[in-house]
């Protein structure tokens, strides 16, 4: 049965569907970057509120700024912006249709329709999931990079921007001129201090366009930090077959695990839904939750993805079924990452390691190693390298983290141990591949990888780290990944 408003009441009884009247919903949020994660996470929290008769004036309008977003818009529009969520858990699966999204802005060069929608006073929150690589940050410093060509385009043509941030600034300019309140700018990305970084990018770009407008935004808008968590695989043939097996024709279904977490700083300049009623945590300790999740879960993903890719393991659950990779994750997390992460209410670092062990090992979740390894140049620099710097500064063990970098280098050489090719999987793959091959072949081999200063900065000069890295990389090339994993466990 084709998913639509007209067929909601005819869906199989086992599928939960909206109990609220979607025709009565009015928009309050524009969400830029409408991928699987948003629809399984933020959209679900809002849907849950709507099921309880709340937040009827906070419906979501989807948006994007790249031409490829148009394909998603058309698929969503064809099914009235409804999404089937399928929870996959060893204890049993379930499905529900989420209806909190009611529209999707057309994708047009210059982003005129997006600017118009953002300028509407009814829109009180503009949220983003554009990935950590979408914030125009310098890879080494993680600070706003105004030299990026897209940013330079927006500075030169602020009325027809390419970036989401340029569109937000254009809309805020219109709202200021009309005497309307600004919207809250809400990052929902896996990025340390995501609200602070969003503030830095928006104010940095606005300051280069119009310093007076930048000052108004800084004084009147808000940029709450948040931590988001849910494992959401990409949708492919297997997921499409699964939703059809349930009796639903949905071109953009989403599968997810039986776990969600959303920790939000309560800093909203123009109101917000009562997300805490739906299970979100409103807290001033966002940074502690964020550090635990980014360092241990996101960093842990990168620690296991590289050896799994080199060994030809397809999924994260498959990686966790490999004794050496599972042991690597636990030892690195407990011995090298946890000492620099604070406990949070109700969860110690040791309990969190057990939690991510269970979540990563879920055989029902077909989360591919390739998806997790994608854009390692952003994910390692954001989630793994900060832990290395902390360990070096504190004099605590760093061997496993150095091993993780040697494994990433070996993966970027572009071949598996069975001789098959690893296809490019990073926006700067050519650069990473060249450095990895140089690190294998050059006389001063290991340093060729660490000399990517845009990632490693001063870490390249740290003798303890660089020597450990060199030892591991030489061992991996000489004896293979599994030998290196055994050596690390033996200490």
From TrEMBL:
Record GO terms (molecular function): oxidoreductase activity, acting on the CH-OH group of donors, NAD or NADP as acceptor
Keyword check for Oxidoreductase: yes
Membrane-crossing residue ranges in chain numbering: none
Keywords, alphabetical: Oxidoreductase
Residue ranges of domain Mannitol dehydrogenase N-terminal in the record: 28-276
Gene3D superfamilies named in the record: N-(1-d-carboxylethyl)-l-norvaline Dehydrogenase, domain 2 (1.10.1040.10), NAD(P)-binding Rossmann-like Domain (3.40.50.720)
Residues annotated as domain Mannitol dehydrogenase C-terminal: 286-474
SUPFAM superfamilies attached to this UniProt entry: 6-phosphogluconate dehydrogenase C-terminal domain-like (SSF48179), NAD(P)-binding Rossmann-fold domains (SSF51735)
Methyltransferase among keywords: no
Entry-linked PANTHER family: MANNITOL DEHYDROGENASE 2-RELATED (PTHR43362:SF1), MANNITOL DEHYDROGENASE DSF1-RELATED (PTHR43362)
Name of this chain's protein: Mannitol 2-dehydrogenase
Source species of the chain: Marinovum algicola
Lineage: Bacteria, Pseudomonadati, Pseudomonadota, Alphaproteobacteria, Rhodobacterales
